Structure formats: C-alpha cells, structure tokens
Amino acid sequence: MLSNCLNCGACQSVCPVHRLGEASFPLSWQKSGLKPEVWNCTNCWLCQEVCPQKLELWEAKAMTQRQNTPPAQVALSLASLNEIGLSLPLTANTNELRQGYGLDPISFINQTVLQSLIQTK
After folding, report:
1. Which of 9, 26, 62, 79 is most buried, by CB atoms within 10 Å?
2. Does residue 78 share a domain with residue 37?
3. Looking at the domain assignment, is residue 5 inside a domain?
4. Please, which pLDDT band fits residue 27 given cuts at 50, 70 and 90?
5. What is the pTM of this model?
6. How many C-beta atoms surround the C-beta of residue 2 within 10 A?
C-alpha cells in the first residue's frame, strides 16, 4: 500500500505529531515496521494533501489499526465512545466540575440512536 512511497519526508514535514517529537505515521511506520505510532495520528490528513505520490494514506492507516491492538488509553476511549457516545468516561463529579467553570452539564446520548450511528452495514 505504501510501496510507491518516495520517502521524501513531505508527510513528516506537515505532521503535527512529528512536530511534537513523537513517532508519526506513515513515514516512520514504513521505514521501521513499527505499528504503535498509527495510534498517534490526529486525522488531520495534511500528510495525504502534501504527498507527491497521492498515496491513500487513510486506507493504510485504517488497515494498520484494524490489524493491531490499540494502546490501553485508546482502547478505553473507544469503549467509552461506543458505550456513552463520549471519548472520555464521565465521572461522578464531571458535571459539578463543569458547573464550576460555567459550562452546561453533559447529558448522555440516547443509546438507541448511538448504536444506530455506529453500526456498520
């Protein structure tokens, strides 16, 4: 999938994760064969916009994610998103904290609606 990559580094030059000094997808993934950095992706897709080969980087990322277990924190966020529609679990005092900052309380998403949105057909 990335076999036509020129290793030019254009993707790295625009990657916000790479700018933070973290391993980023796709160039380091292709060079090292390491997979964890695929979970660092912010999905900004700047890499795909600047790729001179017009590689389908989103497809390579999705395939890699399907083939690998996410880190614990990512798995927790995905489970929470699936269960309550929020990427971070609500704690007993979440809405109290929000009220202290003048924010509206978070309400749970209707589970039937949520499940219909995330179902793949």
Report:
1. 26
2. no
3. no
4. low
5. 0.59
6. 18
